[in-house]
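Morning!

This is the sequence you dropped in the shared folder:
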Amino acid sequence: MEAVYQVEVKEENLMRLEQFMWISTSLYCRKKRRSIGYWLLLLYMFFVLVTLNMGVKSDIMFIQIMTNVVVISVILLMLSRHLRSLVFIKSLVGIRRLRHLSGKHRLESCCILFYEDYFTVVPGPDNTVWKYMAIDKMAEDSLAYYIYFADKKGCHFSKNAFTSGNSDDFRQFLEEKTGRQMICMEKKRKA
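The structure's back. Tokens below.
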């Protein structure tokens, strides 16, 4: 059987990986009620901060200042989902960038083959085959497609990477096979 669409992925694009993570965060991270344990931990952090700063002000040492900075950072990360996502995503992309620069990480080129009933990655781990119903969410921007199985799990590829079929028809094909709408994500432009 011949693939309906074929996508050739030749290199890892770190900017697209970062966009993949941001889209995943916006699609999967909804406002959730925080548990009582969360609020108790936050209250404890404020207590630690106040306790660290009690005493004679002339006795403040470098270690105490650094401890204050760490505690305040933890409190800010707990309060802000966006800040937490920013730290996580920038750290992940930074680590990948360092691995690329060190030469320890090389992405082997692969091919994603989309058939009528399933899709697969060649070469891939154990010739894994995915049914289209496994796709949870789909998104696109002007440059790429983003396919999600779960939060921060999925694949992304350039719209220019098609070697069989074209990117314009691919959107309709994927919507028909999954029964889901493709979400259009436009990058926010800096003013």
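Headline: The chain has five helices and nine strands.

More detail when I'm at my desk.
O.
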